[in-house]
Amino acid sequence: MILFYLENCPYCKQARKWMQELYNENPRYQEIPIEMIEESEQSEVADAYDYYYVPCFFEGKKKLHEGAATKEVIQKIFDDYLEEENK
C-alpha cells in the first residue's frame, strides 16, 4: 500500500494521527506494509499516479481513497486490506 502525503497538509497530518491511533488499537494494522511518499520530495513517483488531492491511498495502481479522510475511512482501508490478504 502507498500513502501519498504532503508534510504541511493538515488533512495528511490528521490522517497519520488516526493511523497511529488505529495501530495502537489493533496491532494487526501495524503488519500492513505502507510506503509513505512525501509528494513534494518524490514528485517523479507521485507523477506516475492518477490523483489530485492528498492524503491518497493506493494499492498498486488502484486508488483506495483520495482527499480528507476520517478515522473510519482509514480503518475500512486497513480492514479491507487485511481481508484481501487472508483470502
Quick overview of this protein structure:
By secondary structure, the protein is α+β, with helices and mostly antiparallel strands.
Protein model, in words:
The chain has 87 residues and is of the alpha+beta class. The chain has a single domain (2-85), classed as Glutaredoxin. It is built from 3 helices and 4 strands. The chain has helices at 10-25, 43-46, 71-85, and strands spanning 2-5, 35-38, 56-59, 62-66. Strands 2-1-3-4 form a 4-stranded mixed beta sheet.
Mean pLDDT: 95
CATH architecture: 3-Layer(aba) Sandwich
Given as residue ranges, the uncertain stretches (5+ residues, pLDDT < 50) are none
User: Number of helix segments?
Assistant: 3
- Helix content, binned percent: 40-55%
CATH 4th-level superfamily = Glutaredoxin
Share of β-strand residues: 15-25%
Shape: globular
Main β-sheet: number of strands, strand sense, barrel status?
4 strands, mixed
**Which sequence of strands runs across the widest sheet?**
2-1-3-4
CATH topology: Glutaredoxin
Q: What's the Cα radius of gyration?
A: 12 Å
Q: Which structural class matches the secondary elements?
A: alpha+beta
Distance between the termini: 17 Å
The number of domains: 1
**CATH class group:** Alpha Beta
Number of strands: 4
